[in-house]
Amino acid sequence: MSEQTEQTERDAAYDVHAAETKWQRVWREMQPFTADDEVVLSGAREKRYALTMFPYPSGDLHMGHAEVTALHDVVARYWRQRGYEVMNPMGWDSFGLPAENAAIKNDEHPATYTYANIDTQLESFQNYGISFDWTRRFNTSDPSYYRWTQWLFLKFRERGLAYRKNSPVNWCPQDQTVLANEQVVDGHCERCGAEVTKRELTQWYFRITEYAQELHDQLDVLAPTWPERVITAQRNWIGRSEGAHVEFPIEGTDEVLTVYTTRPDTVFGATFMVVAADAALADRLVTDEQRPAFEAYREEVRKASEIERQSTDRPKTGVDLGVTAVNPLTGESIPVWAADYVLADYGTGAIMAVPGQDQRDWDFATKFGLPIVRTVQPPEGWEGEAYVGEGPAINSANDEISLDGLEVEEAKTRIIAWLEDKGRGTGTVNFRLRDWLLSRQRYWGVPIPIIHCDRCGEVPVPEDELPVELPELRGADLKPKGVSPLAAAEDWVSVDCPQCGGAARRDSDTMDTFVDSSWYMFRFCSPNDDTQAFDPALVNAWMPCDIYVGGVEHAVLHLLYARFFTKALADMGMVDFREPFAAQLNQGIVINQGKKMSKSLGNGVSLGEQLREYGVDAVRLTLVFAGPPEDDIDWADMSPAGSLRFLQRARRLAGDVTSEPGTDPASGDDELRRVTHRTLQEAADLVEGYRFNVMVARVMELVNATRKAIDSGAGPADPAVREAAEAVAIVLSLVAPYTAEEMWELLGHRPTVADAGWPTVDEALLVEESVTCVVQVKGKVRARLEVSPDVTDADLEAAALADPAVQRAIDGAPVRKVIVRAPKLVNVVV
Ligand code: ANZ
Ligand code: ZN
């Protein structure tokens, strides 16, 4: 090749798409990302489990997937370069409403739709060059997976952690199915946005409340490595509060109304009681005379959403139940009302109303002319209504106890002790968290492995008959109807009872998809094991996940459920850790022109088009370089073309290097070597601190420094230039794997750069050049010392006093004081 063509070759933009095809073939042959269980079991290498939330197979991958996996891959590939055995698995969360609704819309079977999309997404992921271990993939809708979801359900049920009960539940009128509390966002269905109503139904639940305390407490342990907003969201959702149960006898009956209150100190001010209108208790207490009014009111209440019911600016409504209770402290007879602002499924479903200290109670009392007694002294000049702040207790004494003058906390302690002593109440902890409603009246999910028999009741499907396969129901109408389409599949539903052999019926509900995703991280550790849900030895070796990258929208859904599953499995002796995710990172979202991408706004950005136009690496680099991972990215402000130009520039460096691979860099240009080693050091720190965008900026600087050294300094044969170019390739491999492979090859190495290993940083090269320190004696500069910028005060003082010029200036006089301002100044006073 003539020098001329060589030059043109190097300067020409390389064909990114040809490189993609080429390296995909190489990777497919090499399988460099297959995690080795043996290495981890034997302890030969330390493990890292990098997990990113697996997708729903609805449509092809979009910008959101591109962003989260690009960020995630930085960490996974970095760990590999650092010599860890990395497991980075991927699969599909392939059951659920999104697929089912899309399938209905397209008049297709959900399975056809789902598996076609999985194929598409798989190909896109492979093209996108994420370092996934594809040998571990599975789909939650595969019978080989959901067999174990069913098995786990039965194990949970054996332990009393899965059960059925009748109660008012959230109902989505659009999707025609029940929803868990976690799936109701501001009173609306998380999936379709319809306003959620209540229905009284018998449903399956997981007893997550059994773990409320631990789920709450362990947040403190997770806080340093989990995003603050997730910790806060979970803390609020679990909603731990401390208070008391206080008993109010109902006059003329044996009934006792127990209330939950966080302010037992205000009990002297309880002038009436309120029971949730839809609680069974209200129905039991109401007098015959008040019943018609009560029932009419209850009808209204049932139509209201929880949000409406709790909104404070809504006029208060209610009905007097016609009975009275006795305030255990004042001995007064107080009326009992039913209202909607008290919720049936929180606390005890009843409250003592203290209008002096609670604004909702104040509004209610004012509206219905009920008495108001203040029991906390408001500050001077107080003109508000209910006073919720601190202050001394007032109007709070009887013959046996006085709280008057006590501050809130002290008064609480005192009254709880008294109540407990008299057997009229107890101090207690309450949680907002409810049990997790898991059954759904829809088709595309895991069948609940239970058979209902008139004689035997609920009978679990025997383990050796699992999985209970989802019937195909080709051609059946899957539109939401309020009952599962499975109920109509007579052949499937009617079975013999496994216990008595009599005619029985399968449970026709399916499980919420969040059940599927609550244990998938365990399955990845032994994905092909058909003898058990997971291999405990492998799970204990690989888990917990060292990082979990995903969207903050799962803060209280998936992330809470997965924590619950882990704790339950630990208590069953199946795993020896209690939290599944040691660290977590939430990415922001990709928006366009300041707005969320949406069809109706017409501002969607097609990932496919971006990839075709700029190539995978440029898109990945753009997403990682855009800003801190947690921030949203506005694609309109991004320049994938600029990213591509940078990648071309980086690649050209590799083409320019003329020294041989393995050349000792020690004799190379010192200045460039310093930049290289500082970059390697900083890049490592930046990746570990999730500051990937700054890491990219440092590589860009290194590319510039190297280019300068080639063109106007050391020249292409200098070993420091090779060292720098190799460092660029290795660091860049975390973000732009194709370009990095190209560079690695141009530099004369065999693939794959993913396994090159992070170069050892030479500490000596990190030391910054010296600083000049001025030494004064009697106010006159007597010496200048060249010292390290991080010299200690003591070392600097010793060095200054030992200097011959300084000694001469002191001339034997007694030193009174030495003022040291390291590293720049020493002042000797004699
Ligand atoms: C008397 C009282 C006086 C209250 C006062 C507050 C202030 P958290 O912190 O959320 O647990 N409450 C209890 N059960 C309820 C229900 N089912 N529906 C609606 N409200 C209910 O709140 C506990 C407080 O919320 C309880 O303390 C109770 O009102 C109310 F100055 O009791 B309190
Ligand atoms: Zn039976």
- What ligands can be seen in this structure? ligand ANZ, zinc ion
Residue windows where pLDDT falls under 50 for at least 5 positions:
1-10
Shape: globular
Strand order, largest beta sheet:
2-1-22-23
Instruction: Assign the structural class, choosing from mainly alpha, mainly beta, alpha/beta, alpha+beta, or little secondary structure.
Output: alpha+beta
Major sheet details: 4 strands, parallel
The share of residues in helices is 25-40%
Number of strands: 30
The portion of residues forming beta strands comes to 15-25%
Number of helices: 30
Mean pLDDT: 94
The separation of the N and C termini measures: 75 Å
**Radius of gyration, rounded?**
34 Å
Question: Can you walk through the features of this model?
Answer:
This protein is of the alpha+beta class and 830 residues long. Helix content is 38%, strand content 17%. The protein has 30 helices and 30 strands. The strands form nine sheets. A four-stranded parallel beta sheet has the order 2-1-22-23, with helices on one face. Strands 4-3-7-15 form a four-stranded antiparallel beta sheet. Strand 8 (240-249) and strand 9 form a beta hairpin. The protein is globular and about 100 Å long. 43% of the residues are buried. Zinc ion binds next to loops.
